[in-house]
Design goal:
CATH class of the largest domain: Alpha Beta
Largest sheet: 4 strands, mixed
Radius of gyration: 22 Å
Number of helices: 18
CATH superfamily of the largest domain: Type I PLP-dependent aspartate aminotransferase-like (Major domain)
Number of strands: 15
Structural class: alpha/beta
CATH topology of the largest domain: Aspartate Aminotransferase, domain 2
Shape: globular
Strand content: 15-25%
Bound molecules: 3-[O-phosphonopyridoxyl]--amino-benzoic acid
Distance between the termini: 39 Å
Strand order of the largest sheet: 1-2-3-13
Number of domains: 2
CATH architecture of the largest domain: 3-Layer(aba) Sandwich
């Protein structure tokens, strides 16, 4: 009863993000009521293993009293004050200091925002400001990648390479170009992976030359693409990209919104790949999603110019460094350090997941099973052909629904299944996750086998 009541009221008044509201209205939302550890509970009493850590963010898991208390203490002491007009407050100071201690050595400043999208808006403004201050205002172009996600504000959408978003949100911010993504399974399977990685880096150089080698300001990329499909680049990719950027004096922006805070087994994804970014947008795992907060970590090269030569930077948000959000983020980082969360992902849980997840490659529906740290993907293929299913069959969505039914939240991006569980997941819970994912694959295969020709005919007609 209560579920239906919520669904009715939700349908009446709530426009959801990235949702076909009409279709959702017909189906009804799933109502999540509470959560504990790595599990969420819906209004029908179902317990689901949260294989997505909320939306790639609940790194410390649900129900952490320490985070709740940090928020409450700060809300009682100072619920709000701004960081404009020469003011600050202890949580913002302490968080900035802690972040710069955890970040690579050349990163010693942070600008706070309320989200990852705002962080990438800040990136765009800082990059342009930097080159203007350097007397190189012709360096205007920012290069991103196709199928990248950098947020949903106009700047985030424009930096990202999601074609359906551009189609709805255009015209995009001018001065942003995109190059191909290092997605070996999706776009280079007929080639050697390392040669493919180098080809993708070469495509970046071609784009730079096309735009004008003096006109490119920055390159932005995620270490591992998250929303695009948990795309782990071939080992050859990042070293080759690094060399291209150095050759043309182009800033590197590494979007750490998903990969930061332990996801890849290091504090930041750039450390895993040996990168030295000039700017690092952060959010999500910074507070384990308990309160909204983001920021941009700024390397010395850019920070020194902005501070020493920039005068006032006309940019900022009401909630930049919000005291309660900052206090929760600080406590979150403290817990991650004292509990050795990042090291456990690198040395134990990541390798364990890699071993168990790889077993799913034996399933007839799976063309590739890949993982790094605690992010993983399965590429679904038609066992009859070894190729992708026709898109309109929606096999990924079938598998996602089957996964929910088996008690696991697993996402689909097209026919790529994705997991990104809380970093506090246990080995036993990883076993459970793999069992449930296999059950979802079996159900999907059975549904397809039930009516293969009918489903295909319907799709093709
Ligand atoms: N950069 C990256 C790499 C992200 O993944 C953002 C920026 C924007 O952050 P905010 O806090 O503004 O949402 C993100 C967000 C999905 C999905 O479907 C992924 C994100 C957001 C919503 C959905 O995988 N990532």
């Amino acid at each position: 009863m209560q579920t239906r009541d919520y669904q009715r009221r939700d349908r009446a008044h709530h426009l959801h993000p990235f949702t076909d509201s009409k279709a959702l209205g017909e189906e009804g939302s799933r109502i999540i009521e509470r959560a504990e550890g790595a599990y969420i509970f819906d209004s029908e009493g179902n317990r689901l293993l949260d294989g997505m850590a909320g939306l790639w963010c609940v790194n410390l898991g649900y129900g952490r009293r320490e985070l709740v208390e940090a928020a409450r203490d700060q809300l009682e002491r100072l619920p709000y004050y701004n960081t404009f007009f020469k003011t600050t407050h202890p949580p913002a100071v302490r968080l900035a200091e802690t972040l710069c201690r955890l970040a690579p050595a050349h990163v010693n400043h942070v600008f706070f925002t309320g989200s990852g999208s705002e962080a990438n808006d800040t990136v765009l403004r800082m990059v342009r400001r930097y080159w203007a201050l350097k007397g190189r205002p012709e360096k205007q172009w920012i290069i991103g990648r196709e199928n990248a996600y950098h947020g949903s504000t106009l700047a985030g959408m424009s930096l990202g390479g999601m074609a359906p978003m551009h189609a709805q949100g255009g015209p995009c911010v001018p001065g942003i170009a995109h190059v191909r993504q290092p997605y070996w399974f999706g776009e280079g399977r007929d080639r050697d992976p390392e040669a493919f990685g180098r080809e993708c880096a070469a495509a970046l150089e071609e784009k730079i030359l096309e735009l004008g080698e003096d006109k490119v300001a920055a390159f932005i990329a995620e270490p591992v693409q998250g929303a695009g499909g948990a795309i782990i680049p071939p080992a050859s990719y990042w070293p080759a990209v690094k060399a291209v950027l150095a050759k043309y004096d182009i800033l590197l922006v590494v979007d750490e919104v998903i990969c930061g805070f332990g996801r890849l087994g290091e504090w930041f994804g750039c450390v895993h790949y040996g990168l030295e970014p000039d700017l690092m947008p952060i959010a999500k795992g910074l507070s384990s999603g308990y309160l909204p907060i983001g920021g941009v970590l700024v390397g010395d090269r850019v920070a020194e110019t902005l501070v020493e030569e920039g005068g006032e930077f006309f940019h900022g948000f009401t909630y930049s460094g919000h005291p309660a959000c900052a206090a929760v983020a600080l406590k979150n980082l403290e817990l991650m350090e004292t509990e050795g969360v990042v090291e456990r992902v690198r040395d134990d849980l990541g390798p364990y997941l890699a071993r168990r997840w790889a077993e799913l490659a034996e399933h007839p529906l799976v063309g590739e099973a890949r993982s790094l740290g605690l992010v993983g993907a399965l590429e679904l293929i038609d066992p009859a052909t070894g190729e992708r299913f026709p898109k309109a069959l929606g096999v990924g969505n079938l598998c996602r629904d089957a996964s929910f039914a088996s008690g696991l939240v697993m996402r689909s991006v097209g026919d790529t299944m994705i997991i990104s569980p809380p970093l506090v997941i246990t080995r036993e819970q990883i076993d459970d996750l793999v069992d449930k994912a296999r059950a979802a694959l079996d159900t999907t295969a059975a549904r397809l086998a039930d009516q293969p020709s009918k489903a295909r005919e319907e799709t093709l007609s």
